[in-house]
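Worked example

This section walks through a single chain of length 624. The input is the sequence exactly as stored; nothing has been trimmed or padded.
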Amino acid sequence: MDRKTGREEDRSARGAVAAMFRLTAGHRSSMTVATVLTLVGSALGLAQPLLAKKIVDAAGSGRITWPLLFLACLFLAEAATAAVGRFVLERMGERIVRGLRRGLVGHLLRLEMREYDKHRTGDLISRVTADTSLLREVVSQALVDLVTGSLVAVGAVALMIWIDPLLLLLVTLTVVTAAAIVTSLLAGIRAAAERMQHAVGEIAADLERALGALPMVRVHRAEEREAARIGQCVDTAYEAGVRTARLASVMSPAVELAVHGSFLLVLVIGGMRVNGHANSLGDLVAFLLYATYLVVPLSSVFRAVGLIQRGMGAFQRIEEALALQAEPTGPARETPAPAPEPPAGPAEDPPAHRAPAPGTRRTPPRDGAEAPALALENVRFGYGPDRPVLQGVSLSVPHRRQVALVGSSGAGKSTIFALVARFYEADSGTLLFDGRPAAELSRAQCRARIAVVDQNTHVVHGSLRDNLTYAAPAASPADVRRVIELTNLHQVVDRLPGGLSGMLGERGNTLSAGERQRVALARALLTRPALLLLDEPTSHLDAINEAALSRVLKDITQECAVLVIAHRLSTVQHADQIVVLDAGHVIARGRHEELLAGNATYRELAAGQALRTTTAPAGRLPTR
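Given that input, the structure is written out below as tokens.
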């Protein structure tokens, strides 16, 4: 079955019910128990009119005490059974929604980066929250109501046929009329519900966009414009909700009209038949009760079908999210043979691709003793067929060395970082970690070797300790103190109420930009990576802190390889190697003095900057 045919089938009532039923996989036992309890309660309810018939027919004899007590017991048993069945259903619905939300959250956190480029974050969040909430009502009520309502209606109809087939024919005519009206409205309800769910997703996405850039919104006095933009989505959701309500308002009276009409017909025609002695008064009472009882299951069936149609809009959005491509968990290809380990250094020195134990340092290897921590060989990449970024880039980052990437904006520096972090895969060429092709390693294995300090420093809501130990939750207090010392976060610790336990607020809004950058650097250093990626590490630092960072980086290279992007050449002028990029090509490489003498592009970059030579105590960043 092709995708289009599948969509058309899903739009039918049968396809919608089948799709909703698939959600209950793994919860069928609970659904069965709830269905059985509901059916038992309904059977107890169906027995009550027959007992009432006998009580009415025996009223003249006066022997009705025990039947009345039995009727009361049936009523109480029905109520208790229905209550237990409803609880089981509600719990099942909550469990299904919990599973959906967990699955969605886990899937969304593992999507390929290209998927995030195509979809808005707020809309994806809405699928986890609003859409799953709507589905809870469907799976906890509609499915069982559809099954039990249909069975109870069949049972009631069978008993009504037994009592008076003619009266049943009159009831059937009114019910069929109502069913025709309801069926004609279902497609409109489904379409309106889908439109409303999409509008709610747009509200969440636009609100997340505005709140995420609130300082910019405020300073540019754009509150009213953003409110108007979001208000348009609110109006769309309102219009769709009103349309849904309008259609539902027609459906409900149609059902009620059928109920009241059938009741009046039964009362009038049945009364005439009692007067004509075709039926007894007890028969009329029992038939009226069954007609009344028939209303409840039929109403629940109509309501369930309408609810399922509304839920299908949310279900399709969830399925679309789950269908987005996630990152693979294994390597891109199997390793044909184990990669040779680098020649061993001193006995106490850990392998080069592993972080050393806390408090230890690597012993520099002999020249040529091991493969570089990172190597790119003729790597080509583009974000689309018409957007080439890297065009045959080759470079290497030896262990315990600092390599810098410089070049104008758009040269491809940040894209190299994205490839090293395996956010994207190269179109061609080879990426190697310690001599092993990245394709032979899982993304998790590659990322375990690196730490990244992005120019958009990410500080999450939580305490300072939570942020520092985010990638190393088992870090010891001594390790935490070490990175605080290296990055000079003492002032931040002292200033925050609670010190390391002090809360940083949403996106770290209690810190300055430079402090957030130092928190990100400390977090990266705490993992003791084999390769540290620094993207514009001095973009928010003053001259003194920038000069001190250069000294810190020199100390860090005793433990790991460092690949740094810098527009400020003063930060990287002492790097072991500087790689100059231009339009996706490596046009030069060498040390600072060599490039100044031999490369015009580098001289142009350097000429646009006054290279700072401010010094600071080695081993830590100075006080702000």
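What to look for: The first helix runs from residue 3 to 10.
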